[in-house]
Amino acid sequence: MSRSPSRVVICGAGIAGVAAAYHLAAEYGLENVVLVDEGSPLSLTSDKSTEAYRNWWPGPDWAMTAFMNRSIDLIEGIARATSNRINLNRRGYVFATADAGKIPFLENMAKTAEAHGGGAARFHDTTQSAYTPSPERGFEVDLTGADVITDPHLIRRHFPYLAPETVAVAHARRAGWLSAQQLGMVMLEAARASNVRMVRGRVVGIDTSGGRVRAVHLEHQEEFQKLAATHVVLAAGPMQTETARMIGVDLPIRAERHYKISFADTLGGLPRNAPMLIWLDEQHLPWSEEERAALAADEEARWLLGTFPAGVHGRPDGASATIVLFNHHGEAVDPVFPLPEPEHYAEIALRGMSTMVPALKAYNGAPPRPYIDGGYYMRTRENRPLIGPVPVEGVYISCAFSGFGVMASCAGGELIARYITEAALPDYAPAFRLSRYQDAAYSALLTRWGDGGQL
Ligand SMILES: Cc1cc2nc3c(=O)[nH]c(=O)nc-3n(C[C@H](O)[C@H](O)[C@H](O)COP(=O)(O)OP(=O)(O)OC[C@H]3O[C@@H](n4cnc5c(N)ncnc54)[C@H](O)[C@@H]3O)c2cc1C
Question: From atom 18 of ligand 1, which residue's Cα is the shortest distance away?
Answer without folding.
Answer: 405
